[in-house]
Amino acid sequence: MKYRSAGLLLVALLSAGLLNCSKPLTVEQQVIAMIREMETRIEAGERRPFMSHITEDFNGQNGLLNRDELQRFVLLQLNRHQRLHAQLMPIHVSETGEGTAAANFKALITGGPNWIPDSGQIYEFETHWIKQDDEWMLQRANWTPTALEKALY
Questions:
Q1: Which CATH architecture has domain 26-151?
Q2: Which of 63, 69, 96, 140 makes an SS bond possible with 128, Cβ 3.0 to 4.6 Å?
């Protein structure tokens, strides 16, 4: 009897856990997951998978970069630094409309020829996302270098 009660309790707990796992992700969780996916791709040097998350009408740096120019910029950075790494700080996401969102965050970007980086900079990112075919795509992005003192606040 004791084992049966424990078994029923275990089944109930597992069922509750599975139900909780099946909840759809929030917009915030979906956008953060996409940012993390892009971070993984760029760190692995995978330019094409990284760029697959950028819209065709991408606009970056307040209109200075279109999608093709961003792709060249990414390629330049990957060729310049054999190893890129991004340490993302808290990502703040807000829904801006039906199927659109904004995400703001800071990131320490480092690069170098080996495991130990020889360069690094903290950037402040302002990004805008649109949902296309059930996937969040980066539509606009601006980034500015920021001082360490400012990044901590």
A1: Roll (3.10)
A2: 140
